[in-house]
Amino acid sequence: MTASADTSTVKPLNFRRYKDGDNKVRSWQKEIFDAGHSHKCPTYIQSTPPCQGSCPAGEDIRGYLNIVRGIEKPPAGMNWQEYAFRRLTEANPFPSVMGRVCPAPCESGCNRNQVEDFVGINSVEHFLGDYAVQNKLAFNKPAQPSGKSVAVIGGGPAGLSAAYQLALKGHAVTLFDERAELGGMMRYGIPGFRTPRDILDAEIQRILDLGIETRMNCRIGTNITMAQIRADFDAVFLGLGAQAGRALPVDGADAPNCVTATAFLKAFNDGRLRHVGKRIVVVGGGDTSIDVATVARRLGHIDKIHESERPENIIGGQLAHDVAEASVRQGADVTLTSIFAVDKMQASRHEVEHAQSEGITIRGGMAPIGVIRDETGRATALRIIQCEAKIVSGRLEIKNIAGTEEDIPADLIVSAIGQAVDFTGLEEFNNGKGAINNDKNYQVQGQPGCFVGGDVIRPHLLTTAIGHGAIAADGIDRFLQNEPLEKRPKIDVHAFDLKRKMLDKGYAFTEASEPMRGTCNSTAAIHNYDDRSDRYVISHKELFLGHFPFVARNRRSMVSLTAAEALNNFQERLQPLLEAQAVAEAKRCMSCGLCFECDNCVVYCPQVAVFKVPKSKSTTGRYVDTNYNKCIGCHICADVCPTGYIQMGLGD
């Protein structure tokens, strides 16, 4: 490609890097700067930022942060808070809940970690979610029903996510759940001081308001057969969850006062469990074990209880009386053990620190090897041993250290080492390993029209289940339209859509019928632009990090409690950002892989080849353009592009 419209006097360029017989590496610098023509000129490449690539729900994080910070403007008649909320909830209908409890793998992947500290993505999500609840924002119902019906089995995050996405596509959805209330692990597996029930209820109701029907206290396989479900509906989504806990794999673990974390938390969230005993030992190391330990610390113990009021009996389903309410509540000694060292535990770092501040003893590098029982069969202690645990080739290896055994006295032992699926009545789906086999579209293998998602595939994060539900809903939609289930993209996320943005702003354009070079005079949709979001995550090495000064993170306030203050304190600890803080935090986003209108390329271009697009034609992602008659391929624009949006890739 030449820098002049007259190509008659320009010698042809040879792009072969080596000639026959060459054995030395040579620089292309001479050719690149040869007279008035260049091998490489700037192109505009949209990539997925690592925050989105790390988000199990595939949120368009960069997109809603750019809205909050003011880069992308909302349409007329809508404020930025609502616009950002609607962009966020294209992937995740639970921003207020997830903004509180998601361990935020997006923040671990954030490129801002290379400057000073990650962007507080979770805190901005929290702010937007609370704004939507407080202002009663509703989802927009589809204009036209599809005439198709779908049964969603399980009202946890996966089922609710699938139901939400399917309802938006116009399908009639009926949601079945064996419990009295929806929410799954969000309600029954996480304590209310982490997921306030009014917030959870509001976000669930917003989904139901799309016209979703519910059948509560109805277990498929018991109250209604799977055959009847298949006969009554055009497709099925299985969001069964994994709400059966795993017992400790040691001798004596069948003692009545050895219980699972899921049973413990369900009894607490049901309002039945009101005290736990004097000495509690929790075995785990993940966020669930922290939840159990902090709940136990708040419940404490009472001195005189009836046999029927023992915690294990209440957890087992016996009816609780009012004795705990009338008694003086006293503190409980809570110990949490993990096979991993404390700094290597899977639980969120801040949750571990707050548990310790509340007086919970955390002992890392300890493995359970037995339960000590008295003559009645009740557990009196957990026997542990020092160990070294590590992951080798994806498998856990534990090496116990002989001679380091000890007993931790216990009135109640809680196992938080994993979850299991209850397949009663649905044995046909069990793959023999306690899970359901599925393809990349989350369709059950060998069962067209039957899809699956959430912990029934593999117990993981709530956000992961939400992502499963959304992808499965796409598959169900295609199935109902008799379309083939196409291969999912390598990077399966919601991404900024420049063409949609241009249409929203009323810009007319024509589609290029074939790949084009040097399109600065073309009417094709986007000048030398390629959206690689479905296949490429941009790293910090492709950014101009020198553009970003140190800016301290805007942190949410967390109420820290002492051991005494934690007793009987069930108030929420995490406080949302103020509006100004949320905006300031969003401005720390480096908009990796998409222009954020800094003007560097325009200012530093020595040929004045890069220019701003006229306001009548510009929009987010289409802020600058290049005149290729002036460009000499010096790549300064790419060097100073903070976001890596400009790459040197165009050439003959």
Written description of the protein model:
- The chain is of the alpha/beta class and 652 residues long.
- Among the domains are: 156 residues, FAD/NAD(P)-binding domain (3-Layer(bba) Sandwich), CATH 3.50.50.60; 174 residues, FAD/NAD(P)-binding domain, CATH 3.50.50.
- The protein has 22 helices and 21 strands.
- Strands 4-3-2-5-17 form a five-stranded parallel sheet, with helices on both faces. The chain has a five-stranded parallel sheet with strand order 7-15-8-9-10. Strands 11, 12, 13 and 14 form a four-stranded antiparallel sheet that branches.
- α16 links the parallel β9 and β10.
- α3 packs across α20, α7 runs antiparallel to α20 and α8 runs parallel beside α17.
- The longest helix is centred in the last third of the chain and has 19 residues.
- The termini are close together.
Quick description:
Among the domains are: 149-244 and 421-480, FAD/NAD(P)-binding domain; 245-418, FAD/NAD(P)-binding domain (3-Layer(bba) Sandwich), CATH 3.50.50. Helix content is 27%, strand content 15%. A five-stranded parallel β-sheet has the order 4-3-2-5-17, with helices on both faces. A five-stranded parallel β-sheet has the order 7-15-8-9-10.
